Amino acid sequence: MGVLEELFGLDSRVAIVTGGAKGIGMFYSEALAGAGANVVVADIDPEAVAETTDRLSETFPDHILGVELDVTDRDSIRAMVQQTDERWGRLDILVNNAGLYTVLQPKETPWLIPEDEFDQVMAVNVRGMYVCTVESLPLMERGGGGRVINIASGLAFKGSPNLMHYAASKGAVVNLTRSMAAELGEKGINVNALAPGGTASPTAIAARGDRAGGMSERTAQMRIIKRVEVPEDLVGTLLYLSSPASGFLTGQTIVVDGGTYLH
Prior knowledge:
The chain is of the alpha/beta class. 46% of the residues lie in helices and 14% in strands. It has ten helices and seven strands. It has helices at 3-8, 23-34, 46-59, 74-88, 115-142, 155-158, 164-184, 202-208, 217-220, 232-242, and strands at residues 14-18, 38-43, 64-68, 93-96, 146-151, 189-196, 253-256. Strands 3-2-1-4-5-6-7 form a seven-stranded parallel beta sheet, with helices on both faces. α5 packs parallel to α7 (164-184). The longest helix is centred in the middle third of the chain and has 28 residues, at 115-142. The radius of gyration is 17 Å and the shape is globular. The N and C termini lie far apart (36 Å). The mean pLDDT is 93.
């Protein structure tokens, strides 16, 4: 085995990608499979699960498992982990990607967010990530360790008056990542976060067109790398965080936004 395979190869690894059937999550699922992993494509949209699972299975036969998942339902999460165990008997990588974003409409004022919407954002984006991790830990620990990758956002650091509840939820993800890392280091589980900038994903384009953050040329000109961010810009960092190459990295948040936010 060459150095690159030792550092970045994911052969025989098993990965779960929540929200993995569409949007940026679909690109994460495909990238992990392309690196050799067996991938659980878990998503709340059953039609998207079926479509993405069928498409990826053509390229990566016997490496893809589609699962319907509601991250606000602990029984649904447990069923996903059980199906993963029954199929492959291990779990090495958990990508906590499921979250509410494209369905949220930017607010003219941040002071009129409906309470039920605020609570739903926190339930999906924060508690869902926490419970998915809790329920996945026994299977991950059985294999002697692994990787948890939480998807945050550049808005965790910049804030967003138009999407205050979303930005707050992603700030919580950053701190959740740090807290999890401190607890799980002795178990051989590294926990890091990937924070995309505004990305021209298929779901964002469908929902908002050029109004989606980061997709306009005006926004692109505010970056050091002056172009629109696309999902392919994120997969390299995701694969790094999933692989042996990141074995001494934990508790960190990597912002991938073309240089909009520097820290």
